Amino acid sequence: MGQVILITGCGEGMGREVAKLLASSGDTIAGFDVDEKSISSLANELRGGPGEHLLMPLDIKDRQGILAFKDAVIEKYGRVDTVLSNVGIGFFGPFEEIDLDKALACFEINVIGAAAIFQAFIPSLRAQGSGKLVAMSSLVGRIPFPFESIYTASKFAIEGMMLAMRLEVMPFGIHCAIIEPAQVSTTFAAKIHKLPPEGSPYRERARRFIAKDNVMIKTAPTPIQAARRIVKVLKAEKPPLFSQIDAQSTFFLALNRWLPVRARDIILESVMDIRV
């Protein structure tokens, strides 16, 4: 049966490619996505392959649904070896102009959603004395990006939660890992890019930011390339605490650790073409 690996948000993008790679190697995939059509399509694609699967439509905000899903997974397979929290939404806009109710919804999905899935499965992992909790974060979880203040804050929160939680669960044989992609050539960014309205003092710089972001997406790793790196983390007996999916992310994180704040600001403003 291989490992039993749970993946949230596996209907499309990186999550889907990760599920396919793992299933093709004989691992058992348990997962869900809010998009019923995409999760049904994935189930059809995995059917007949070497790995088993239990997939269903489910909203990460449905707390009782998550607990019921956990019970179904444990009842069917007896255990879970790895939990990958992959659900997340983007959020773009000048901080001064954002809708705070929508910002709260972003935190509900990106942070509390991850917390809910981990909290649901920790008792089983603790009882069996082993397991891995892996969170999809982002480069902006350590390098804050302008016009993405709320998304950045949600990813900083994910990383803080994981770093604190790992010290609680480590004595029970549970390993925590954080994966920090930068850009991946999906439609993720395009779904959130929206220019501030005419007359906004931020409109021109946001326009340049979006244009540069779109250029970078064209040369970014593909979902399958990202998935190969993610799978290595999931399959590692003791995964590193931090992993990136491309050399550029690793390079920028190294700069972020050692350069003075003003130097980091100048580089970021230049790279994203938003210098005044």
| Gap from first CA to last CA | 57 Å
CATH topology annotation: Rossmann fold
- For the record, the CATH architecture stands as 3-Layer(aba) Sandwich
CATH H level, superfamily name: NAD(P)-binding Rossmann-like Domain
> Helix/strand/pairing class, anyone?
alpha/beta
Overall CATH class? Alpha Beta
Strand content: 5-15%
Number of domains: 1
Largest sheet: 7 strands, parallel
The strand order across the widest sheet is 3-2-1-4-5-6-7
Question: Which tags fit this structure?
Answer:
276 residues, globular, alpha/beta, Rossmann fold, seven-stranded parallel β-sheet
Topology:
Layout: E1 4-8, H1 13-24, E2 28-33, H2 36-46, E3 53-57, H3 63-77, E4 82-85, H4 100-128, E5 131-136, H5 149-169, E6 174-179, H6 203-218, H7 223-235, E7 242-243, H8 247-258, H9 261-271
Parallel strand pairs: 1-2, 1-4, 2-3, 4-5, 5-6, 6-7
